[in-house]
Amino acid sequence: MPGIRVQLPPPGKPNPNKPKGLIVRIANPEGAQKYGTMILHDEIVNINQMFTEFIHAPEEIKNMVIIQSERDVIHEQIINVMDIAKQAAIMRVPPPFTVSLPESATKHDFPRKKFNLFVSADGRISFDDLEMITLDHMEMYLSAKEAQITTLIIKADRFAKHGRVIDVMERAKRRFSKTEGQEIALMVAEESYGP
């Protein structure tokens, strides 16, 4: 790697089957920089060069983008890389047929299954409108609500530190003891929350 050292957040469980894909490394921003330096194929790249590299990547590694980021990289930069991957048709696997979903004539009241976990730009955490004091409090709260949650949607501010978002995701995964029927999603839509 050309003179840039990327210190990654601690990993989750190791995966014995290492996936093949495009690996993007992002270093912490330095000085007054907003974004960290990005490295693809051991070369420093900007977002436009990354898009070109994604487009021209060999098909056998075009199924996945692996983003390795230091903890202080802002969440927005990670999402920008994900957007470029989507635009370059990386990880897009459409079905080989058309799917038309049915319309429902009746409305049903189902118990709430989706819950939101917010991460602010300064790293504060809120479970819907209830602010969590620490990550430990968040874990305890999720543990108490575990039976009610089917989907936990993590909505991180675009300026949230990547390391903080990873901490929240890892703690949330630990609290979901059921592997079937539960999922954690990371919301990337451009919406604003709060006053």
Automatic annotation (TrEMBL):
Top-level taxon of the source organism: Eukaryota
Location (main, coarse): membrane
Topology of this chain in the membrane: Single-pass membrane protein
Gene Ontology CC annotations of this record: plasma membrane
Pfam family, one: ExbD
Subcellular location per the Swiss-Prot or TrEMBL entry: Cell membrane
Entry keywords, A to Z: Cell membrane, Membrane, Transmembrane, Transmembrane helix
UniProt-listed Gene3D superfamilies: 3.30.420.270
A GO molecular-function descriptor: transmembrane transporter activity
InterPro entries on file: ExbD (IPR003400)
Name of the protein this chain belongs to: Uncharacterized protein
Organism in which the protein naturally occurs: Geodia barretti (Barrett's horny sponge)
Classification of source organism: Eukaryota, Metazoa, Porifera, Demospongiae, Heteroscleromorpha
